Amino acid sequence: MNLKFNTDKAKNYKNNSQIARVLTEDWVKSNSYCPNCGEIHLQQFTNNKPVADFYCIRCKNEYELKSKRSNSIGKKIADGAYSTMIERINSNTPPNFFILTYDRTKWEVNNFIIIPKHYFVSDMIEKRKALSQNAKRAGWIGCNVDITKVPNNGKIYLIKDSKIISKETVLEKWQRTEFLKNKKGVSKGWILDVMNCVDAIKKDSFTLKDVYQFEDILKTKYPENNFIKDKIRQQLQLLRDKGLIEFKSRGHYKKINL
Questions:
Q1: Bridge partners (DSSP) listed for residue 66
Q2: Which CATH code for domain 7-182?
Q3: Strand 62-69 relative to strand 96-103, pairing
Q4: pLDDT tens-digit readout, 63-92
Q5: What is the spatial distance between Cα 231 and Cα 238, in angstroms, rounded to a whole number?
Q6: What are phi and psi of 80, to 5 degrees?
Q7: Distance (Å, rounded) from C-alpha 204 to C-alpha 128?
Q8: Which CATH code of 1.10.287.130, 1.10.10.10, 2.30.30.100, 2.60.120.10 fits the domain covering 185-255?
Q9: DSSP letters spanning the chain
Q10: Global confidence as pTM
């Protein structure tokens, strides 16, 4: 990967947002690859598809690119129409998200991550205020994606702090998330919530008691479930079986960091 943008591509543009769009899209097309199958070149949709920017010719995965002038990915990413995103999540067809941050003074990438589509659930999508009646698209309602609700293992860096992550590591991390593809609704929600609970524990080694501290929070989200601790143990066992955490001894676990 070459972290530098090819600024020649934007010579004919004056608008800053158009320049950023042209340069970031060109960079992804020239430097990225499919994190699912490893295909070395992604293809760009030519008809301004509203819910995706790139696709893989081999595995058919689709990717939506979000870029921002920043040193970090931040907490929220502005997306398109709220209703469209919710519809795609409910139909289990959201795009995978590329998030690219760059330094405009150098026109250089500093972070590039992928969030697999199977990490998206509806409560990660925040409805924005409708555009005013004086706006060109009066009444249109957009959305933000709250990426603080995405577990750490669902934020797969291809580039982190200007350092390129090996392709092998990226592909391995992606493969460890594949089991979520077959999870839906409440079942997926439980897995993601327990992942986030584990992430919130500020140490690599943790105990069952540490996770039980989130019982009240989970009870609020799942009021009809009277066996929260049992459900926590069940999800930890699943995460262990999928290689996302390590079982050390009875009631003791360790995070796995690739």
A1: 99
A2: 3.40.210.30
A3: parallel
A4: 999 999 998 898 999 888 999 889 888 887
A5: 11
A6: -85, -140
A7: 36
A8: 1.10.10.10
A9: ---B--GGGGTT--SHHHHHHHHHHHHHHHH---TTT--S-PEEPSS--TT-SEE-TTT--EEEEEEEESSS--SEEEEEEHHHHHHHHHTT-PPEEEEEEEETTTTEEEEEEEE-GGG--GGGEEEPPPPPTTSTTTT--EEEEEGGGS-GGG-EEEEETTEEPPHHHHHHHHHTTGGGGG--HHHHHHHHHHHHHHHHSSSSEEEHHHHHTTHHHHHHH-TT-S-HHHHHHHHHHHHHHTTSEEEEETTEEEE---
A10: 0.90
Token pair for residue 61?
A: 């995965």
102-130 pLDDT, tens digit per residue, is: 999 999 999 999 999 999 988 899 999 99
